[in-house]
Amino acid sequence: MKKPEAIIFDMDGTLFKTETLLVPAYHRLFDRLRAEGLYTDETPPVERILGSLGMLLEEIWKRVMPDASEEARRRADELLLEEEERGLKSGGSELYPNVVETLQALRAHGVKLFVASNGPAPYVEGVARAHGIADYFEELYSAGGRKTASKVDLVRILLDEHQIKSAWMVGDRSSDIEAGAENGLGIIGCAYAGFGANEELEGSHVLIQHFEELAQLYETSEEKQAG
């Protein structure tokens, strides 16, 4: 792959070790749903939501609680955000190893860095702020903030608004691979999160097992084409 002008990152399972925040928040939200009388069953297996990361929230709740009412799903949306915000304030959530150092190295090379996530804007911005990485990015794009129906559209908007001509898409789910492919980007699949099946990363140009491999990948990639 050619050296890119910009690198676009997914958030969950790419930069952020999502389960460190999501699992406790997930259990708390179902306790609250039951207390409010909106849900009477046992908490669905947490693997359902971990396996749904990368989807839009509406689709996630259909998969996690297929028999629940629309009211319960909408409330679950609200409660998850509340509980995740609470979790970020109390600490304990984690980025993947060497994320900060790698972002610093890429910025030192003059690469423009962005986030493109299917999550809600307060969540994406909250994670970036809580872990001290917000300032490394030119802008944080979220499906919730831009009201996009797919990550393909979200990335297209990002590229147009910042007039980016060459970029890499870095992520761990099929939505990231699709967004890179449909927008003609270099695609780097993150194989370390383990939320999705291996076939989700089919179509990646490169697979990485550790986040810090990105810096070396950039340094050893071919120079940009003239013009």
UniProtKB/TrEMBL annotation:
Alphabetical list of Pfam families matching this protein: Hydrolase
UniProt keyword terms in alphabetical order: Hydrolase
Alphabetized GO MF terms: phosphoglycolate phosphatase activity
GO cellular component: cytosol
UniProt-listed InterPro entries: HAD-like_hydrolase_sf, HAD-like_sf, HAD-SF_hydro_IA, HAD_sf, PGP-like_dom2
Biological process terms in GO annotation: DNA repair
Domain of life: Bacteria
Tagged with keyword Nuclease: no
Name assigned to this protein: HAD-IA family hydrolase
Originating organism: Paenibacillus agilis
Taxon lineage: Bacteria, Bacillati, Bacillota, Bacilli, Bacillales
